[in-house]
């Protein structure tokens, strides 16, 4: 049966590198949404907890419930509480309506829109937001923003950084009048974290960096954590002139030993239609179309590594490594090694 191997040393290395750059493990919010980008959220959470990380972020309560035993604080990015939630949960409030809808007394981090226009209150809505916070006795524990273009080297990152700085000082002023003192501010996801030299006493919110994917700062020494392995289902000689798989898209020039391996688009791989050269980690190409539960390639043994760097598949499919990783089915067995 196919396997995802998770490299424990690589993961610990990445976590330590991130903490070192920010200065403190307590300043790191580990983003473990979407099953930790397909890696297996509870597996990573166990290791992160053991080495002292205490704060994570997820998408919704379903994910939070799985990680509740591992972290002191869990920031839930896009979900309004429905009742019976854990004391450990903190809710991102993504607009004024969310502040109005949320239950009285809830712990919140206020999202502020500093340019992305996806989530967050407008900077001009701050006074109104605080009126709601006060009226509902919400427990304001932090505020944050998200960059729309930190992954592209342009001035936008600095514009948002500046916008956030100015809103931060306003928030601090109003918050202290209301008696909210220790606030956690955070604005930097992985790309912005890599680009930053000074964290302005903020926390960082890193997802992909902890998994070993860096794009700006090679000196960080991040290493990919996940490798995907497929097991042989069957093998045969594909005779000269025969085609393999649906539509017979790959035709052998001469007799060759091929094998079929047990991963396909039903396991979350993007479907390869047999056109262009898509390679396994060994550089052997897939042969013909991918099926729902299998693909074929030259027979190179019982196990093949499909990829140990998701960027190879991302490049082929003209997408980002996030998408290649996050789609990996939760039903593939994950193991540390
Ligand atoms: C997903 C997400 C992150 C993490 O982004 P990476 O690029 O993986 O570090 C951080 N903040 C928010 C609001 C997110 O949705």
TrEMBL record:
Presence of the UniProt keyword Nucleotide-binding in the record: no
Keywords: Isomerase, Pyridoxal phosphate
GO BP annotation list: D-alanine biosynthetic process; peptidoglycan biosynthetic process
MF-aspect GO terms: alanine racemase activity; pyridoxal phosphate binding
N6-(pyridoxal phosphate)lysine PTM sites in chain numbering: 33
PROSITE patterns to which the protein is assigned, alphabetical: ALANINE_RACEMASE
The protein's required cofactors: pyridoxal 5'-phosphate
SUPFAM superfamilies from the UniProt entry: Alanine racemase C-terminal domain-like, PLP-binding barrel
Gene Ontology, cellular component aspect: cytosol
Keyword Isomerase: yes
PANTHER family: ALANINE RACEMASE, ALANINE RACEMASE, CATABOLIC-RELATED
Protein name: Alanine racemase
Species in which this protein is naturally found: Campylobacter mucosalis CCUG 21559
Gene: alr
């Amino acid at each position: 049966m196919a396997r995802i191997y998770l490299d424990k040393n690589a993961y610990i290395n990445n976590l330590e590198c991130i903490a070192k750059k920010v200065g403190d493990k307590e300043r790191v919010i580990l983003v473990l949404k979407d099953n930790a980008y397909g890696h297996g959220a509870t597996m990573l959470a166990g290791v992160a907890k053991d080495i002292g990380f205490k704060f994570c972020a997820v998408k919704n309560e379903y994910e939070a419930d799985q990680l509740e035993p591992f972290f002191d604080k869990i920031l839930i990015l896009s979900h309004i509480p429905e009742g019976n939630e854990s004391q450990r949960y903190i809710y991102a409030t993504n607009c004024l309506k969310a502040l109005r809808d949320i239950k009285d007394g809830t712990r919140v981090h206020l999202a502020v829109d500093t340019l992305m226009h996806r989530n967050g209150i407008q900077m001009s809505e701050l006074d109104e937001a605080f009126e709601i916070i006060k009226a509902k006795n919400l427990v304001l524990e932090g505020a944050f923003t998200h960059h729309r273009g930190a992954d592209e080297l342009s001035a936008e990152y600095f514009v948002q950084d500046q916008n956030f700085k100015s809103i931060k000082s306003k928030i601090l002023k109003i918050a202290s009048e209301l008696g909210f003192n220790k606030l956690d501010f955070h604005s930097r996801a992985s790309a912005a974290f890599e680009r930053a030299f000074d964290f302005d006493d903020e926390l960082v919110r890193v997802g992909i960096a902890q998994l070993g994917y860096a794009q700006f700062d090679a000196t960080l020494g991040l290493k990919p954590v996940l490798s995907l392995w497929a097991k042989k289902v069957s093998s045969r000689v594909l005779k000269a002139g025969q085609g393999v798989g649906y539509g017979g898209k790959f035709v052998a020039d001469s007799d060759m030993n091929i094998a079929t391996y047990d991963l396909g688009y039903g396991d979350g791989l993007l479907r390869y239609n047999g056109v262009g050269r898509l390679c396994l980690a060994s550089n052997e190409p897939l042969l013909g179309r991918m099926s729902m539960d299998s693909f074929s390639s030259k027979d190179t043994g019982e196990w093949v590594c499909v990829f140990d760097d998701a960027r190879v598949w991302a490049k082929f499919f003209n997408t980002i490594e996030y998408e290649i990783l996050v789609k990996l089915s939760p039903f593939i067995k994950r193991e540390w090694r």
